[in-house]
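Structure, all two chains, one model.
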Amino acid sequence: MRQTWHIFLKDARRLRYEIIVILVLTAAYAWLQGHWSPLSSLQARRLNQMAGMVRVFLLPLAWWYLASLAVYGEPLPGDRQFWVTRPYRWTSLLGAKLLFIAAFVSFPLLLADCFILTLQGFQPWANPGGLLWHEVAVFAVLLLPMIAVACITTSFARVVLVGLAIIVSIVVLESVLSPYGSTMVGFGVGGGWIEGLLVCLVLFSAAVAIMILQYRTRRTWVSRMIFVVALLLVLCSGRLLRSDTTYALQSRLAHSRIDTSSITADFSPGSGPLPTVSPARQDTVRVSLPVRLYGVPSGTTVVVDAMWAELTLPNGNPLKTLLFFGETPPDTVWHDALVDRSLFERLKSTPVRLHITIHLTVLGNPHTEDVRLGGGPYRVPGVGLCEFDPRGPDRTVLICQAPFRQPPYVLARFDKFDKDTPREQKQVDYSPYPAEFGISPISDYSWPVPTGATTLAFTTMKPLAHVRRELDIPNVQLAEFAN
Amino acid sequence: MSVVRARELSKSFRHMHAVEKLNLEIPQGSIFALVGPNGAGKTTTIKTLMNILRPSAGSAEVLGTDSRRLGPAEFSQIGYVSENQELPLWMTVDYFMSWLKPFYPGWDNAWAEELLRQLDLPRGRRLQELSQGMRIKAALASSLAYHPKLIVLDEPFAGLDSLVRDELIEALLERCAGATVMISSHDLAEIETFASHVGYLDGGCLRFSEEMSSLAARFREIELTFDQPPALPSPWPQMWLGPTESAAVLRFVDSQFHADSTPEEIRRAFPSARAVSINPMPLRAIFVSLAKSTRKAA
């Protein structure tokens, strides 16, 4: 520990001017972000632009610069460094660099977050878990990778080159992979956090591996290979994740808080006439399948996050996977999918076999708050601080802010609707963690307000379990369900 | 007892073999000079021994520890100075010394003060403001102040003027009594004055490693004078290096000289020689002849 402290003090002395710049920049960020306004007035827009520039560009760049300089005090690649033949303990050296970043980046950021939360009308200490998680996430997923990159480079100019290489890789990979689309097929609302979590885990694991490998053995080529593999994994994460795996992860990571064994899904052809829906495009046919859910525990409600059906001929030959539209309301019986017209024409009178997979979320603890529209800001329990922003003669947006993350499930029900704005709107994020990843401690989300609406009821619910149900339908003629 | 011991030590960079199957022992208390032409592999050998580079094959022990496992405990007893070492240039000489002090349990304040004084180092100046020679002196002072058991110097005299060189050697000799010193250098004339052992490295291979006195004893420059150009023995003995012939004079270097037997062997090989002159050689001349003969053989 003494050696860690000794190295830390040396770095603090060497980089004192850079530290002052970082502190000033963090203070500027705290002031700008603290005065950030969700409204669209000219003054607010200017302030928000400046806050955004500092938060998204200047501050991370300055952190990266400082982290790099701290690491370059005892550079790792190469064979000419004086310190490698001195009695440094690698744990002390790495500890000193981490302590340096914690002291001059994370701690000022913690203070800035408290300041921002206070200015924005929230109690910083009301959610200590969220505050801690937020700081730890920034440290683990943003600052550690910055340190890791410095561990495999010898100058900040090279770091900039690495940054440019990453941007070029993203552009090239996107153009190469775009024809193949994403494998995150049929991924429903609220589960996007899993991809984010996996990206964070890859970044964190790679950063830790690189730091340990470099400080312990200085095997730079191996570390650089780890960096490249991690980068590829991050860039391709959306394409590598299968929906099934993703939902399985969601079920495992978000622990079930209710017994869901009573919930069953059944094919219900006698569920009344086909619903009236807008027609599909000419090259597709809309197929509506009646699937009903039974045994939902009392006091809870269920939403279908995703549903797909594997279509096979009676002889077992696979034909296609039909994707049903994203999240559906709890009382929906009919589930819609679009089928290529050519395929439909070929199969419409042939019996086919359907294997349906449904991913559900059980929601509970409902709480409803009524809000009278106009003015603001309103403090809505469980939702956040909400304010109306008139953006035009017939366009108003309701913007809500919450500390660290948006609520898991919010349903906004307006008293009116218009042709562009539905009566019911949802914000869903099933992440079980107390804060979402981001530099700002404030999460904001918005709702378009229907013209003429005067009242709004917010219903918040908590996800209690994520479950998967499967259904086999041996003989179906798609023509019976074409809509 | 050996302070440094290498067994079949090899280091390759992709397809280039910098050091090949090097076997080396450096006895405790010796001043071992590792010499050889440019690109011979001296620096690579030292960096591999110091765990700066990982060996490709073979192994080495330094102070009884596998070179790949050298850590803080061993480095607190090793002083390593290299001509191309990257020092923390932002530090002043004084801060550099005080910065390093807590790393070494055996740091001797009084000695450190004396070293700074003796090497005439400007305490308040930053290392980046110093000349190359002054920086090496600062590195040397910081590497001697804790009484290291092993001092490893990689080309410490390169690019230094003779005055600074003398100061460094003087400091080294005065301050390192009892320590083992390993030094690589091109400056053979200087090394000759203080090295007790010498190893000759060429093309990544250690050609020999022995005590200076035995090396000096076994190398002789032989000059033979004839009345008319002589007939050379065939085959030419391998231990006689670099024969040069001009008119009635033949010169070569005997690398296996024995006072008892060599004069007789020469007389047998050259019965028509009118005069035989056998002269001891300075280290520099020995290595020049070795380098030439190796190059010719290649």
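DSSP finds ten helices and 14 strands in chain B.
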